[in-house]
Design goal:
With about 140 residues, the chain is of the alpha+beta class. It has one domain. The chain is about 35% helix and about 25% strand. The chain has three helices and four strands. Strands 1-2-3-4 form a four-stranded antiparallel beta sheet. Strand 2 and strand 3 form a beta hairpin.
């Protein structure tokens, strides 16, 4: 946290760690939803191989949305998942959500495969089509 310019107080750290763990678990659930598109290809569950925080690097999607008037994310991570011996990179943009009473932090996660292969593009198109067809976009 200090590397990122934060000055945490020791009494706050238990809550910070709990929020951090909850956010990481939520991000992993999003990754697993993407990986479900490939469940029939492999008998092994996907596993996180490595990750890298990139708080000062904005994804192309985040920059595009910012040009359209949206705020930039406050953080970004790239996670590399092992899918049956094949490395698949995911981009996770972290956006601040609207404050809510009684909630210590509110945020939105934008989790998707990095556009570094034709397969990743295909996955993103398939997931978007499913999202539109389900009508879930009306709820957000």
């Amino acid at each position: 946290m200090q590397r990122k310019g934060w000055d945490p107080r020791e009494p706050d750290m238990q809550r910070v760690v709990a929020i951090h763990n909850t956010v990481n678990e939520r991000a992993w659930q999003h990754v697993l939803a993407w990986e479900a598109l490939h469940a029939c290809e492999c008998s092994q569950p996907p596993r996180l191989k490595r990750f890298q925080g990139k708080p000062n690097e904005f994804s192309p999607k985040a920059r595009l949305l910012n040009m359209l008037g949206f705020k930039l994310p406050f953080d970004r991570h790239d996670w590399v998942v092992d899918r049956c011996g094949r490395e698949v990179r995911y981009v996770i943009d972290f956006y601040s959500g609207a404050p809510q009473p009684g909630v210590p932090a509110s945020m939105h996660l934008d989790v998707r495969p990095a556009l570094d292969s034709v397969g990743a593009l295909w996955d993103r198109l398939r997931m978007q089509a499913g999202w539109v067809a389900s009508g879930r976009w009306r709820d957000e």
